[in-house]
Specification:
Layout lengths: L1 H13 L13 E8 L2 E9 L4 E10 L7 E3 L2 E3 L3 E14 L2 E23 L6 E21 L5 E11 L8 E14 L1
Antiparallel strand pairs: 1-2, 1-10, 2-3, 3-6, 4-5, 6-7, 7-8, 8-9, 9-10
């Protein structure tokens, strides 16, 4: 998972050019989100700030849905999540400090799955690691502080698992703080 995240981030950084984004104040933002997912957020702004790409790395199922039925068993603990989402952003009321955004992408999860097995003697509960993959979508609101590089955000979305348990749905709501770091 760490190698995948490193490769993905490296490709994203190398494929961008600072000349293309010169009209937008900041090219990168980094921050933390609380909710589902809970963790680190990195945002790359494109084309004058009207498009962006979010990378979220953190926990999956930590705040809510920690104990939930899943694939003939249940989840009891949180797991690791990596998420990449392409976003479209629009100013609200023609104000540079308020934006709405929406978009979609892909999410990879690694979590413990507990299930009861009768195929072993004596029958017992088994714990196994599950790596899951599926599309995710989000929509949110971002408020930038005037003359400051800080922005607050609140977003909500949905994760729809494709593998290994098709159509497993998990709502995702989170808020947080981002610091615009590179001009």
């Amino acid at each position: 998972m760490k190698k995948l995240l490193f490769a993905f981030t490296t490709i994203l950084i190398l494929s961008t050019s600072s000349e293309t984004f010169a009209q937008y104040d900041y090219n990168w933002a980094a921050g933390f989100r609380v909710g589902e997912p809970l963790g680190f957020n990195l945002r790359k702004y494109f084309q004058n700030g009207d498009k962006a790409f979010d990378i979220n790395v953190g926990t999956y199922g930590f705040i809510y849905n920690r104990k939930r039925s899943y694939n003939g068993g249940e989840y009891r603990t949180s797991g690791l999540m990596i998420q990449g989402i392409y976003l479209w952003q629009h100013e609200v009321f023609r104000r540079d400090w308020a934006h709405v955004y929406y978009g979609g992408g892909l999410q990879i999860n690694n979590r413990n799955h507990y299930f009861f097995s009768r195929n072993v003697t004596p029958p017992q509960e088994i714990r196994s690691k599950k790596i899951a993959l599926g599309p995710t979508g989000t929509a949110g609101f971002e408020l930038k502080l005037p003359n400051q590089p800080l922005a607050f955000f609140l977003d909500a979305g949905l994760y729809l698992e494709a593998l290994p348990s098709p159509f497993f749905i998990n709502p995702q709501v989170s808020g947080g703080l981002r610091l615009n770091i590179i001009k």
